[in-house]
Design brief:
The complex is a heterodimer of chains A (about 375) and B (about 100). Chain A is α/β, with parallel strands linked by helices. In chain A, about 35% of the residues lie in helices and about 15% in strands. Chain A has a 9-stranded mixed beta sheet, covered by helices on one side. In chain A, helix 1 (about 50-65) packs parallel to helix 2 and helix 2 (about 85-90) runs parallel beside helix 3. Chain A is globular, with a radius of gyration of 20 Å. Chain B is an alpha+beta fold and about 100 residues long. In chain B, strands 2-3-4 form a 3-stranded antiparallel beta sheet. A two-stranded antiparallel sheet of chain B has the order 1-5. In chain B, helix 1 (about 45-55) packs across helix 2 and helix 2 crosses helix 3 (about 75-90). The mean pLDDT of chain B is about 95. Classes of the chains: A alpha/beta (about 375), B alpha+beta (about 100). Chains A and B meet through strand 5 and helix 9 of A and strand 2, strand 3, strand 4 and helix 3 of B. Chain B: This is Pyrroloquinoline quinone biosynthesis peptide chaperone PqqD. Chain B: Pathway: Cofactor biosynthesis; pyrroloquinoline quinone biosynthesis.
């Protein structure tokens, strides 16, 4: 997620500043089965999904709480037949619409309908620079070719295109090819995202973790090209956590910029927050997004800096990285209340390197595809 | 390897990139460029530069600089330097394209 966003100043009454965007996971259904899927391991079924009228109400509430953008996401949001209707509603109430998609269910006619409904931007995931590897990771034959077709159609129709490339052991060596492909497709932006190990990816870490040598080669390749790419394509480069010395500002800080609504209407501060035990999540049936944003217990729990333990509390970077990622702290340090162990100042930092090196060496490990 | 993309020049014609729009957010009292999964809050000067220099109806960047020179009653060389730097930054961030 982009962190290059301004934070809107809080009002004097200590009300939290409004969120920038609401991520709407319309469904967990998806024709792809990527082993690093960011959806929870326990997927929500189609029968539990919110209906059209409820999603429209949630969109109204997103505008009310002050969000400026909506990300229609999933799963694969295009499995929802009411996607056009929801985009049109978002447009009508002044929200900027992004579509986060695998693209394999899209065609030109539907893209045209979505554009007429006001869609501004399509983000398409690529699993690799070439079809064989890409289709194997996605578990969907013919997917890669289809994605390229749709990507070109997005650009031809004058919408913004972002290519999202998730890197891991099996494709990281082709990072230059992925960048070249994104430019050839006419993307305005590329997200070079190394796998974040929560949910499905955490379960598949030993099958995905790149080696230090792979990582260094990729990092040098990307950084070496940044000057040449400036002005041609915007690069959002997510440094791989397990090889980092400082944590990323996850979600731009807990409950500072984003709200996430799951297919059945649970309202989360981040899409992986349900992995944290002992959290109480409200739903869109309980209270409005404004109320939940203001003082919902899950949002209040790690907002700001009061919750931070040492060494975060006395750290100069605490309002830059906001303590890193809560879900990663849980996964690696055993507690979501801990400093993100990716930070070199964390007492658990050394263990990250041990896990990383062990999993990076586990060559030949087969991944488990995401599945219902 | 390709060369570094050149700075924006006075002869360039600029438009907002696909998916980018100029918006006024009344709730926050701010003008902003809204784009794919991002936004940029514009201060008064940046807003004036975007209005003067970006859009299909504007002949070229030079015409925008001329207009700003008059509006702000400032030396043209100084205005031009600031404007070209700001526009190059907006281009590199993906908000405007040539």
């Amino acid at each position: 997620m982009s962190c290059a966003l301004p934070t809107f100043a809080a009002s004097p009454a200590a009300e939290p500043a409004p969120p920038f965007a609401v991520l709407m996971e319309l469904t967990h259904r998806c024709p792809l089965r990527c082993p690093y899927c960011s959806n929870p391991v326990a997927l929500e079924s189609a029968s539990a999904e919110l209906d059209t009228a409820t999603w429209k109400r949630v969109l109204d509430e997103a505008a009310d709480v002050g969000a400026l953008q909506v990300h229609f996401s999933g799963g694969e949001p295009c499995v929802r037949k009411d996607l056009e209707e929801l985009v049109a509603h978002a447009t009508e109430i002044g929200l900027y619409s992004n579509l986060i998609t695998s693209a394999v269910l899209l065609d030109r006619a539907r893209l045209e309908r979505l554009q007429r409904a006001g869609l501004q931007h399509v983000q398409i995931s690529l699993q690799d620079a070439e079809a064989t590897g890409a289709d194997r990771v996605g578990g969907f034959k013919g997917g890669h070719v289809k994605k390229l077709e749709v990507a070109r159609a997005v650009v031809r129709q004058g919408m913004a295109l972002t290519i999202n490339a998730v890197l891991h052991r099996h494709n990281i060596d082709r990072v230059n090819d992925v960048i070249d492909l994104a430019m050839d497709l006419g993307a305005g932006r590329i997200e070079i995202a190394n796998v974040q190990y929560y949910g499905w990816a955490l379960a598949n870490r030993a099958a995905l973790m790149p080696s230090r040598e792979q990582l260094l080669a990729m990092d040098a390749a990307v950084r070496g090209r940044l000057p040449e790419l400036a002005g041609r394509i915007v690069v959002d480069y997510v440094v791989p956590d397990y090889y980092a010395r400082r944590p990323k500002s996850c979600m731009g800080g807990w409950a500072r910029r984003f709200m996430n609504v799951t297919p059945r209407g649970r309202v989360l501060p981040c899409h992986a927050a349900e992995t944290i035990p002992g959290m109480a999540f409200e739903t869109v049936h309980d209270r409005s997004l404004s109320d939940i944003w203001r003082d919902g217990p899950a949002f209040a729990r790690y907002r700001g800096t009061d919750w931070m333990p040492e060494p975060c509390q006395s750290c100069d970077h605490k309002e830059e990285d906001w303590g890193g990622c809560r879900c990663q702290a849980l996964a690696l340090a055993g507690s979501a209340d801990a400093t993100d162990p990716v930070c070199e100042v964390s007492p658990a930092h050394a263990e990250v390197a041990v896990l990383r090196d062990r999993d990076a060496a586990a060559l030949g490990t087969e991944w488990t595809y995401r599945g219902l | 390897m390709n060369a570094v993309a050149p700075h924006i020049a006075e002869t360039d014609r600029l438009r907002l990139a696909p998916g980018v729009m100029l918006r006024n957010d009344r709730r926050r009292g701010q003008w902003m460029l809204m784009g794919p999964e991002r936004l940029l809050v514009l201060d008064e000067m940046a807003l004036a530069v975007v209005r003067a220099c970006v859009g299909a109806e504007i002949a070229d960047v030079a015409a925008g600089i001329d207009r700003l020179t008059v509006e702000y009653d400032a030396p043209r060389t100084e205005v031009a330097a600031d404007v070209l730097e700001m526009l190059t930054d907006l281009r590199n961030k993906g908000y405007v394209v040539t």
